Amino acid sequence: MAAEKATPHLLVIDDCTLTCHLLTALLTAEGYRVTTAHDGTSGLAAARHHSYDLAIVDLHLPDLSGIEVAGLLQPEVPFLALTIDRSPEAVQACIDKGVLSYLVKPLDAESFLRQVQVALERGREQRNLRRALRDNHIINKALGVLMGYFQRSEEQAFQSLMAYASTHNERAFRVAGRILEAIEQMGGSKNATRRGNGAGRTRARSGPGSAGLP
Prior knowledge:
Layout (H helix, E strand, L loop, with lengths): L1 H5 L2 E5 L3 H13 L3 E5 L2 H10 L4 E5 L7 H8 L5 E5 L4 H9 L4 E4 L4 H25 L3 H14 L3 H14 L4 H35 L8
Parallel strand pairs: 1-2, 1-3, 3-4, 4-5
Helix pairs in contact: 3-4, 7-8, 7-9, 8-9
């Protein structure tokens, strides 16, 4: 039972039956458990009934877009994008949804399996990190600020925070603290401006005969 629980369970969502068969054969040969779905609705239904370590999602599905499906799977199920579309717009849309890797058909088997392994490791790290940060009020407040200010989803805000921390070699807690400090300073500046404007209006109403007012 313990070994079965430790085996990664992958969800493949692709409308091409041949692709599903090929990916299933490759992944099961590596010891992974695999469930397939041929459209977005079936994939989302599968995700509601079972827990998956990684989803491999084709971007061009018959009912829903792969981007939409991936967005609904996140953040519970990390995903790899599978497509024939190399356009910068498609790549950026996947990045915005927190894609772990972008795979272009036709696939090279060795490269594909390597990307799956890396994605599983990154997905596991992200889940562990979320668990550690879930109850931290500083992180949660910073995510709320990013979501409101930049109109981002929680997953996008989390990805942005972690990417910035990683790029600048800083701890996420420290970056979150600086975000909150900046917001507090902005609030203080706005309050000071409002007080200044209010004082100016008072002086204008009082006129030159009001002695003793600054």
